[in-house]
Each structure stands twice: as C-alpha cells, then as structure tokens.
Design goal:
The complex is a heterodimer of chains A (622) and B (289). Chain A is α+β, with helices and mostly antiparallel strands. In chain A, the strands form eight sheets. In chain A, strands 2-1-3-7-8-13 form a six-stranded mixed sheet, sandwiched between helices. A five-stranded mixed sheet of chain A has the order 20-21-17-24-25. In chain A, 53% of the residues are buried. Chain B has helices at 16-33, 50-59, 65-71, 77-93, 98-103, 118-129, 140-152, 154-165, 180-192, 211-214, 278-288, and strands spanning 2-6, 44-45, 172-178, 197-204, 229-232, 256-258. In chain B, strands 2-1-3-4-5-6 form a six-stranded parallel sheet, with helices on both faces. In chain B, strand 4 (197-204), helix 10 (211-214) and strand 5 form a beta-alpha-beta unit. Classes of the chains: A alpha+beta (622), B alpha/beta (289).
C-alpha cells in the first residue's frame, strides 16, 4: 500500500489564451517521476484529449483525502496559465476564464489542505502570477477544489513551490529539443545526481537511502532556473518563491544517480540499497540503467555544485530581510545583511526596506484629531467618506475630511459608540471599508497598490493610552515591520518558538493591539495554531466590543466548523485583509450580496482596497 | 510471555481486580472448550482507566442531541459535528430509513431544511438506543462523549494512554482489547511498535471502523504488521459498526476480520460475549504458543 498520493495537472489550452506547449507534457513527466518513486498513487489530469475541469481535480483530491487517512503526503502539481488576484494564485483550467468557477484558488486550496488530515501536503505551482489583464480574468475567483471533512487532526505542514514571484511571469522555453517549463525542468533535475549539499541520508544500515529534502530545494531550483534563463534570454528573470515549513526529513523524491552506460539508478523502496548480488540484476534492468552493463560499487554523490546566485531577485530578498526584521523585533535573532554577500544591490534593498518600514509608522504629529474615533490617512486624499455606528441602523452619515498640519487627512467621528463602519472614497475613486474603534485613531497609509497598512493607535485621553505609551516604540516598529513582511508574503511562523514569541509579545499588553492582533491571527491560522487565533478573537472582542470579520472567519475551519456563533455582528461585512477574501467561501463565512461583485475589483494591496467603480455600490450597500 | 488486556468505557467505579477476574473467567470458558487450561493470572496485566475516564468526562460539559434541541446548536460545534457524523454513519449502516426517523417526530411539525435539524438527529439517537437495552448503562450519547473526548483532547488521550503504557514490558506480549480499549490500544501500539515484542493484536467489538472515529486518528496503520491483527465482532453490535477492512480501515497488511461472534450480552457488545467465542479463544491460544 502506497503512503503518498499526487494529483498532477497540466493544462496547455485555456479559453482563448495562447496555447502552452509544455504544461501537459510537464505534468506527464512529473507523474512518471512520482510513479517511478514507487510510493505514490498518482492521478494525472491533462487536456490532451478532454478539457480539465475543476470537478475532476476535486474528485481526484477527494479520492485521496477521504477519511480514514491513508497517506502521509499529498502532492498537488499544476502547470498551465495562472494569474495573481486578490493576493492568491489562480490556476486557470480549460474552460477559464469564460467560466469563472473553472479555476483553482491556491490560497483557498492551501487553507483547506491544512486540515485534510494528511500530515504533509506539497503544492507545486508552475504558472504565471501576472495581474489579471481584463475583467474576465479578474472575475476568476476560483475554488479550493479541496473537500473538507470533519477530521480534527492537527494541521498539516504545507510546502509550496511557486514558479515565480507576485506580478511576474513564469516561462516555458525550448530546452534541448523540447519546450519545457522552467520550474518543472528544475524540479525534475534536482533529483538526478543532486549535489551532496542538498541531500540527506535517511534510514539506517542496509535500509539507508538518500533523499532531497524539500527544505534544501530552494536555492538549487533558483540556480537551475537562472542558468536556464541565462542560456535562453539573460534579460529575463523568474524568481521562484518557496515556503517549506515541513521538517528536515520531508522529501518528495529520492536522489537518483547516473550509472555507467547512461540512465539513472533509483534507490529501491523499503529495503534501501539492495545486497551486492542483486545489484547486477538491477543494473541489467533496462528501465533502470538505460541498458548499461555494469553497476558501480556504490553510487557516488556528485561533487557540490553550489554556486553563488547568478541573479539578485530584489523582491524575494527584501521579503527575506523583512522577515528577519520581524524576527529581530520579536527578539528572535538579529536582522541579517548577508543574504547576498553584502552587495550594493542588497544595500539598496535594505534601504528600500527601511523606507517601507518608516513610511508605515504612525504619524507622530497628528495634532488636530478631536474625535472619539476615526482615521488619519496619508498617501492619498479623500473624495468623500461616510460612517454608520455599529449599533445604529439607518442611513450612512457623511464624514467631512479635514487636512491636518502633518498632511494627513483626518476623519473625526464625534459620536459615541463602540465602533463604526467607515467607507472612504479616495481622490482617485478607489474605495476603503474600515472599522473605526472608540478610543482609537487608525493611521492609514495608502500607496499606489492600495491600502498598505493601518495602525490603530489609542487616543491620548483614553484608558488604553498609558499601556501603549509605555511600549510605543516597540509596538509601532513591530506593527510596521510585520506589515512590510506580510506585504512581501513573508510574515510566517516557521517554528513553535516563532509562534510562542509572537504570542508572548502580543499578549503582553492587554488589550491586544488591534493591528498586530489581526496580522498575528492570519499568521497563527496559517501555522495551524487555532487556539491562539481564538484567544486573539476573544480578547479583541472583549476590548473593542465588536467582532472583526477576519477573526470570526479564521476561527472557523474550512468546511465551516469551529466557532460559528457571532458572524452576524462582524465588522466590517467583508475581510479587512485582501488575503481573507480567498478564505470566505471555503470557511463558509456569510457575506453580503455585493461582496461577490466587489471581489472582482480588489486591488492586490495588503488591506482590502476596491478599484475605482465600486464606491457607489459600497455607499449604497453599507 | 504476557497478556495485556485493555478494557473499554463505562468501567468507572468498578474494582479492577474483579474486572480482571471476570475477563479471565470468561476467557477460561472459551479455553476449556478447546480443552486448554486457564491463563495464569500473574501473566496478565490489566491497566485500569475507568475511574479516570469518568472523572475526565464529568468535567467536560458536552451537549447531547437533546440539549441541542432545547438550547440550540453551537454549544460545542466540534462535538456536535462529531455526533452528527457518527450518528449519520450508524443510521446508514443500520439501514434505518428516513420514514422510521420521521415516525418519531411530532406529526405535522415543521422541519428545518438543513444540517442543523437536531430533532432529526435526536430521533436517530432514540432509534439507535433501541438496539441497546434499557437496563444497560450503554447509551449512544455516553459512548459518543467518551470516544470524542479520548480522540480530541490531547490531555485526556495522554493520561489514559499513560495508564496502559505503564504496563508495557519487554517480554513477548499478546494484546487483547475491547470497545474504546481498542482505540486506546491502537494508539499505544503504533507509538511503541518498534520496541514491543507483540505476538498478536486482538480487537473485540471495535469502533475503529466508524469513519468519523478513524478520521481523528491521523494516518492509520497496522501496528501489528509482523504478527497480525485479529478483529472479532458481532454484526449486531452497533459499536463495531463496520469491519476493519479495505473500505473502512485500509491498512497494510490488512486486518483479519471475524464477524461470526454471537455475543450473548444484551447489547451484543459486552466483553463477556466476546472472550468466550471459540474463534477468539483459538486466536488467543495460537498467540500464546
């Protein structure tokens, strides 16, 4: 009985988009490789003769995840057209974009996969991550394609390999005589004569075998992709993105060694290296040795081929540095500047990072805020704004923007209530929907891409001020660092120590800082620490007197189970962070009718920002 | 050679030495049928967790379907979902028709058209309990509470497992388990399989074939792969709802299922109706050689 399963999907033709040449072929190569591994049950779906539909993928996954749990690893591979929308990858299937449901929402799939009961799940996404080019693509929200059962087991470790970074293309090109996808090519080659540096020996004695752990793949994949691009077109870049929270001994494939006479030798399963007498027999098996007549005494690892990175991928590097900045702010180690050898390019990146962080600190000189709650916006002007108190049904009330001496636009709410729902139309017609909390001013930083960050800072005359004042510098820096790391997709908890330290920092102050609480809840949810999410939710609800939509959603499990009591009173009516939009369906959160339409107008910013054209709908509906 | 006997639920308040005597006495009847002498009680270990389970269950205020009907869903969403899943599985396997369930509902009363129809769930409980006897202390509701807490509360799992683990030895060991004890045994054995010298794993009246239960055990496996796992049950035993076969408990090597036990106890689930079965005792004897 095999203890691993894989669903391997390759789609060359998607709607009217340019046909690919390598997606189906790449999927077949991956399926063949996994099949040869001997411990994978593989389901291959390509569009050679029939379209690949979302239902086929869901059925294939269902066959593997339906309880009882039989597999220790589930791998999902996709090669085809993809886009990056609302901070999620969307895998486009044969009938996309015409049929908006014919796509896989990777963020939702990852979220659901975390609770499928299989301890390790691996996603390999060999697809573009370009922004939607037109409304049809923007309407593609995709689906999780992951059935959810009442498993209740601990959260799976989900490793994700993406062909490129956000807003970037992934490439296929002629390599040798064949058109191949670069990530797929790099992945498959990583297991053939891999350098010692990326290998690890598992098992003992006769049963020992060599594998390439997922954790050690990233640099090797990037170097291979860079090398391939150098030969094809040196002006191109494809910075891969890898997240591997799994343990050191988690691997997809074993190392294969080239044998004399050509071909490769795959260490057999279960019994590790065979006895000497069997080696000749194995060597003569054509499928294993390519017809070679002799077999080496012992497969020798190729010498290390580690090379310095041929390209510096700015976005990735800044993301890493931001992540380290957060770790440093949490007392988990110093920020490192050694990622790329202290080059000028790196210095520039760190400068950019510092600028990013500084921009997101709350403005210290907002002096003329005289409301009981509200916002101070920088980075954009306000065209119109309105609010409704949380417990006061009725028409929306207008808010008159006021420009402060610090150049921030202030929105002061004088009325008294626990909270208010605030709609803000910016000068360029983009729109924000935010909760205001009594006793807090939300320092909003708007950028070209949308709302970058909101720091909820207690007002001076409130009971929360002394506690904030005592830790002001730490909190402000931590919030800003976390926002930058989250923006680059790098605010992740890689260990229990990370999670523990963040929890310690977060719960050190009562009440919980709303901004940090929100960011932390997403990180804890991603790490499967649902009890910490529930704690944040309870503490913030007790302090603010209202439930945040995102927290109510994150305490539910995919499939809708979990704490489900208070969504009716959530604020706002949709997720505050854009990433949350991808989880609404799989976590079965109730949301208003207008949200479905508005979801196609989401910007890619960290905080929910609606593109121009939504303002009237939002003002009418809220 | 040692024999490790792991009891099931609803043993709280009982004298462990008396329980052990009862198990051995029942087994003795079966062994005598084969012309074999009784087991030496000194070679038998009988870890007792009955009082501990009762104490832990009492602390947890889990809602029954009747509570949910009275107060509404959401009191403990996780347990409610677990109850629903097990009960629906039992309804299907026991071939209880919708008409039978509907007959227990007030005639003409409006019905909720959704998964939160707890009056419907409560009616299923009543139908299932009819398969048990009114004088038995076994009810589906109690069974579900105990199993749920053991499966989903790590502290409870750990404390009960420790009771069993304290009696593991490095001698060859035959493990005989019953009901919830089969779940405990499965958990303990898979954790210690590398060190244990197991001679056989015997499960009697096991609920491991209920998918809602096995799905909470993580990746399933056969912890007795080298020596064999023998699972005996009475097809009328509602707890042992499904065999541990390729459909309900697919492991490699597969479990040897024996479904011809005629359990004479009133609810078809009692240990006294399992341990004297000729096939069960034959398996015990073979493992003792």
């Amino acid at each position: 009985m095999k203890d691993r399963a894989a669903v391997v999907v390759g789609v060359d033709k998607t709607g009217g988009l340019t046909s690919l040449k390598s997606a189906a072929a790449g999927a077949k190569s991956v399926a063949k490789w996994l099949d040869e591994e001997g411990n994978f049950d593989v389901k291959l779906l390509t569009d050679d003769s029939v379209p690949v539909l979302a239902k086929q993928i869901e059925d294939a996954i269902d066959a593997f995840v339906r309880p009882p749990i039989r597999y220790r690893m589930l791998l999902l591979y996709f090669s085809g057209h993809g886009i990056w929308h609302a901070r999620s990858d969307i895998w486009m299937l044969s009938q996309a974009p015409g049929r908006s449901g014919e796509a896989v929402n990777l963020a939702a799939a990852i979220d659901t996969a975390r609770y499928c009961g299989i301890p390790n799940v691996v996603f390999i996404s060999d697809a573009c991550r370009s922004l939607p080019a037109d409304i049809n693509n923007a309407l593609l929200s995709g689906q999780s394609c992951f059935p959810s059962y009442d498993i209740g087991a601990s959260a799976a470790k989900v490793d994700v390999f993406r062909a490129t970074t956000r807003n970037k293309a992934a490439y296929e090109a002629v390599i040798g005589s064949q058109t191949q996808s670069l990530l797929t090519k790099a992945l498959l080659s990583a297991y053939v004569d891999p350098p010692e540096a990326i290998c690890r020996k598992l098992g003992h004695g006769q049963a020992q075998f060599e594998v390439v752990p997922n954790r050690l793949l990233e640099d090797h994949l990037q170097e291979t992709v860079d090398d391939l691009l150098d030969k094809i077109d040196p002006s191109l870049q494809q910075p891969i993105e890898v997240e591997v929270p799994s343990d050191d001994d988690i691997y997809i494939g074993r190392a294969r060694r080239t044998v004399v006479g050509g071909g490769t030798w795959i260490p057999p399963l279960d019994f590790g290296f065979p006895g000497a007498g069997e080696w000749d027999k194995l060597a003569k098996a054509e499928s294993w040795t390519g017809g070679g007549s002799s077999f080496p005494d012992m497969p020798k690892p190729a010498p290390s081929q580690q090379k310095p990175r041929s390209r510096v991928h700015a976005r990735e590097e800044i993301g890493r540095a931001a992540q380290e900045g957060v770790r440093s702010a949490l007392g988990l180690g110093e920020a490192s500047d050694s990622a790329s050898g202290g080059t000028n390019a790196l210095a520039a990146m760190l400068q950019k990072l510092e600028k990013d962080v500084t921009e997101l600190l709350p403005a210290a000189d907002v002096t003329s805020f005289d409301g009981r709650m509200g916002f101070a916006l920088t980075g954009a002007g306000v065209r119109r704004a309105g609010f409704r108190m949380v417990d006061a049904p009725g028409p929306i009330e207008a808010l008159i923007p006021k420009v402060d001496g610090s150049a921030a636009t202030l929105l002061n709410i004088q009325e008294s209530a626990k909270a208010a729902s605030v709609i803000i139309e910016l000068d360029d017609h983009r729109c924000l929907l935010l909760p205001a909390f009594e006793g807090y001013v939300g320092h909003c930083r708007v950028g070209r891409g949308g709302l970058r960050h909101v720091s909820y800072v207690p007002l001076k005359d409130t009971h929360r001020w002394p506690a904030y004042q005592a830790r002001r510098e730490t909190l402000d820096m931590l919030r800003a660092n976390v926002a930058v790391a989250a923006h680059y997709g790098k605010f992740r908890l890689h260990s229990r120590k990370d999670a523990g330290r963040l929890a310690e920092e977060l719960f050190q102050s009562d009440p919980v800082d709303p901004t940090l609480g929100l960011y932390a809840a997403y990180a804890f949810a991603e790490a499967g620490r649902s009890s910490l999410v529930a704690r944040i939710r309870a503490m913030m609800a007790a302090d603010l007197g209202v439930e945040l939509f995102d927290l109510a959603m994150l305490t539910r499990r995919p499939g809708g189970s979990g704490q489900a009591q208070t969504e009716a009173g959530t604020l706002p009516a949709v997720p505050l962070l854009t990433a949350g939009w991808n989880l609404v369906a799989s976590r079965q959160m109730p949301s208003p009718d207008w949200a479905a339409t508005a979801s196609s107008s989401l910007a890619g910013s960290l905080w929910t920002t609606f593109a121009p054209g939504c303002a009237d709908t939002l003002f009418e509906a809220n | 050679m040692r024999v490790l006997m792991i009891h099931g639920r609803a043993q709280g308040g009982k004298d462990p030495s008396e329980l052990k005597k009862n198990w051995l006495a029942t087994l003795e009847i079966g062994l005598a049928g084969h012309g074999k002498p009784p087991l030496n009680a000194k070679t038998v270990d009988f870890p007792f967790y009955g009082d501990l389970l009762d104490e832990l269950t009492a602390k947890a205020s889990l809602p029954t379907p009747a509570d949910v009907v009275a107060k509404g869903p959401g009191q403990n969403a996780e347990f409610e979902q677990f109850q629903r899943s097990v009960l629906m599985e039992m309804k299907k396997e026991m071939r209880i028709s919708d008409e039978e369930v509907a007959a227990l509902l007030p005639a003409g009363a409006p019905q909720e058209k959704g998964p939160e129809n707890w009056a419907w769930v409560q009616a299923i409980v009543r139908l299932l309990d009819r398969h048990l006897t009114p004088i038995s202390d076994m009810t589906i509701e109690n069974f579900l509470k105990d199993v749920f807490l053991y499966l989903t509360r790590p502290n409870i799992t750990k404390r009960i497992d420790r009771t069993v683990e304290a009696m593991l030895s490095d001698e060859p060991t035959l493990v005989v388990s019953h009901s919830l004890g089969t779940v405990v045994a499965f958990n303990v054995l898979r954790r210690h399989k590398a060190k244990l010298k197991l001679t056989k794993f015997i499960t009697l009246g096991s609920p491991l074939g209920i998918t809602a239960i096995s799905s909470k055990l993580g990746v399933i496996e056969n912890p007795a792969a080298a020596v064999g796992w023998y699972n005996a049950y009475d097809e009328r035993d509602i707890v042992a709802l499904n065999p541990l076969d390729s459909s309900y408990f697919p492991v490699n090597p597969s479990v040897m299922n024996y479904n011809a036990v005629k359990n004479h106890t009133e609810n078809r689930h009692g240990i006294a109706g399992y341990l004297n079965d000729p096939s069960v005792t034959a398996t015990v004897m073979a493992a003792m050689k």
